[in-house]
Design brief:
Elements (H helix, E strand, L loop, with lengths): L8 H7 L13 H12 L10 E6 L2 H9 L5 H5 L2 E8 L7 H11 L4 H16 L4 H22 L3 E5 L4 H7 L6 E10 L14 H4 L12
Helix pairs in contact: 1-7, 2-7, 5-6
The structure holds flavin mononucleotide.
Amino acid sequence: MANVMEKTLSQAIAQRRATPSFDGSRMPDEDLKKILDAGLQAPSGYNMQPWRFIVVRSEEQKRRLRAASFNQAKVEEASAVIVACGDADGWRSGDLEEMLRMGREGGMPENYAEQAKVNIPNYLSNHPNFAMWLNRHVMIAFTTMLLMAEVLGYDTAPMEGFEQEKVREILKLPLSYHVVALLGIGHLKGNDKFQGGRFNLARTVFAEEFGKPIKF
Ligand SMILES: Cc1cc2nc3c(=O)[nH]c(=O)nc-3n(C[C@H](O)[C@H](O)[C@H](O)COP(=O)(O)O)c2cc1C
């Protein structure tokens, strides 16, 4: 049965931990769908949505994915693993047209659409750091999914410990796909790991310009 009591976002953020081990229980499709839908609502530059996700649930495929993820047991133990990817070619193989079609449906002015048709390919084909552009967007959708999973009462494990080429092969990804991160979702088995702690505001946040402390 799906969880009925959702956490607030504040609770989810405060209680979230990177889960070391999952109990392998099955997850209702309804919850998985909610998590995926939440991620797809994420914002993106020009609304280009270059993210793509492969959901891995079968025992066989999870086992293979684990082998491509430095044998991290949580990959196999998770109820589902969402493999977050960026499609480097999406914008030139239909996404731009689809984005404009939806935009027009939602009231995008025609002169905006005409400009976008020129500006977006120009911007993306000359981007100084395209990998970063792709990564930036995929991680927003990824994080939105992670937080929605936590709100629904699941535990999550974000992972960068995987071998790009092996994962690509297992998932039969097109050449233009880049694997950004794995998101394990399920229920914690055993204990959480130690509390790592967080850098404080004085170390990480500045006011107005670099180096000036923020005061409240
Ligand atoms: C993008 C990303 C990749 C990560 N990759 C791994 C991983 O491959 N394996 C792992 O055990 N933990 C991984 N972590 C979890 C971090 O180690 C964890 O978030 C950090 O130690 C802080 O712990 P906490 O989230 O429980 O507070 C990753 C976290 C992020 C955000």
